[in-house]
Design brief:
It contains 19 helices and 4 strands. By secondary structure, it is an all-alpha fold. The chain has one domain: MFS general substrate transporter like domains (Growth Hormone, Chain: A). A hairpin with a 3-residue loop joins β2 and β3. It is globular and about 65 Å long.
């Protein structure tokens, strides 16, 4: 390899000719000179924290809907199945599909700018949910929320792998992942507070907008702060140097392209099949809990929206946050002890531990026992976010990381969020034909998804070890 190739700037690498023999390509760390900001531990964690705050807002914006199920259904005249489409398919459709082209840009252009634009877009789209007058308007607004949020995770996963060594990657991803659960917890707490505060108020009047119901006002309150965060990010975070770029035998950098990302996945097809599908079914259990637990407690135990929001919000803030951090620690623990399949291994263990509590919490008649079981379930339900991300970043070369991550999120969200949440509603509406039976629907979905997830992740550990070894040898 000549000196000229080694001096290629990170921004220019993506325009080089692609290798003719992709399978023979091997990863190296080009001797880029990182800026002082890149090498500062404090700055590295600042980037993680600000992206975690963005992740918090994204989950507040997507999750607030589930707590307001009853007033939204009443005002927009929706069935459980229609509501599940707003909660799952409407969001996941654009979240999944827009992630692929956005990730292609993230592998070539400024990831920080892409994330900042995405934050502003989904925040405005969340506020637009509060203007919805019917199912179609709400569906389109939720599509836009998903499109904006698609910019965050693939780009962040690519950035964090440039900021941290592999033995610290699990903790960094664990800290980022807690944003999902702080966001979900805050969604329930904020929603419960606003609903309780305004329960005697039929509507409020805003200048230029007019009359709004309580649930519509809630969307404005949780959506607009994201615009300020987008400004903070664009002004304070710089694009990090790209590391671990893949080059071919001829010394030329493999082009960041859709074709090459697909070729890399095909090269490790058994690994990625178990990874993508296994973590998708694992994540399905998480979304069935987040999406339908509020409805279960309100319908089965007679709690109101405020009570449900406060209790579930506290459970999620404690159990899910602790679970995400524990998973990150567990990945690093396995990595330091020489397990090349550390992330997949942690995921398989978490999925196995989740099955029993996620099925049983709807099958007990004691409210406090149900809360105890869902606490345990929420703890283990967090593992797929840091574990799936770490597994992808440890195996994939730099210029393909965002695109491979986006393809995983495409499949995961269509299966977990699109199919999973809707499956609960379909079983309730069409099999039980009784909305009070939503708890049994949750148990059925979680039992099936859990068994499939454990089986595929267990099988995937061996395939993942083989893939890591292949990349080291080539």
């Amino acid at each position: 390899m000549n000196d000229k190739t080694l001096e290629i700037d990170a921004v220019e690498r993506n325009i080089q000719p692609e290798s003719k023999q992709f399978e023979a390509a091997h990863p190296i760390d080009l001797p880029a000179t990182p800026s002082s900001q890149d090498s500062s531990s404090t700055y590295q964690w600042y980037v993680v924290i600000i992206c975690m705050v963005a992740y918090i807002l994204s989950f507040v914006d997507r999750q607030i809907l589930s707590l307001m199920i009853e007033p939204i259904k009443a005002d927009l005249m929706l069935s459980d199945t229609q509501f599940s489409l707003l909660q799952g398919l409407a969001f996941s459709l654009f979240y999944a599909f827009m992630g692929v082209p956005i990730a292609a840009l993230a592998d070539k252009k400024s990831r920080i700018k892409i994330i900042s634009i995405g934050i502003a877009f989904w925040s405005l789209a969340t506020a637009a949910c509060g203007l919805s007058k019917n199912f179609i308007q709400m569906f389109l607004a939720r599509l836009s929320v998903g499109a904006g949020e698609a910019a965050l995770s693939p780009a962040f996963y690519s950035i964090v792998a440039d900021l941290f060594p592999k033995e610290k990657l699990g903790r960094a991803l664990g800290v980022y992942a807690i944003g999902a659960f702080i966001g979900s917890g805050l969604a329930f707490l904020i929603g419960g507070y606003v609903i309780g505060l305004l329960k005697e108020v039929d509507f409020v009047v805003l200048p230029l907008i007019g009359e709004l119901k309580t649930w519509q006002l809630t969307f404005f309150l949780v959506g607009l702060p994201g615009v300020l965060l987008a400004l903070v990010m664009i002004l304070t975070v710089r694009e990090p140097s790209r590391k671990g770029v893949k080059v071919g035998q001829d010394g030329e950098v493999v082009k960041a392209s859709f074709k090459n990302s697909v070729a890399f996945i095909k090269l490790h097809k058994k690994t990625f099949f178990c990874h993508f599908i296994g973590f998708s079914f694992y994540t399905m259990m998480l979304y069935s809990l987040l999406g339908w637990a509020p409805a279960y407690y309100m319908r089965h135990f007679g709690l109101d929206a405020s009570q449900t929001g406060y209790v579930l919000g506290c459970i999620i803030l404690v159990a899910n946050t602790a679970g995400a951090l524990f998973c990150g620690w567990l990945i690093d623990f396995f990595s330091k002890r020489g397990y090349s399949d550390a992330a997949i291994r942690a995921g398989a263990l978490g999925c196995a531990a989740l099955i029993i509590p996620s099925v049983l919490f709807t099958q007990v008649d004691n409210l406090y026992l149900s809360f105890a079981l869902i606490f345990v379930a929420m703890f283990f339900s967090t593992f797929p976010i840091p574990a799936s991300a770490a597994a992808t970043q440890m195996l994939t070369p730099n210029q393909l990381r965002a695109q491979v991550s986006a393809k995983f999120l495409l499949i995961s969200n269509l299966i977990a969020l699109g199919v999973g949440t809707t499956a609960v509603a379909l079983i309730t509406d069409n099999y039980f034909e009784n909305t009070l039976m939503v708890g049994n629907s949750i148990s059925i979905v979680n039992a099936v998804a859990g068994v499939i997830g454990v089986f595929l992740l267990y099988k995937g550990c061996r395939y993942y070890r083989d893939s890591i070894q292949h990349e080291k040898l080539n």
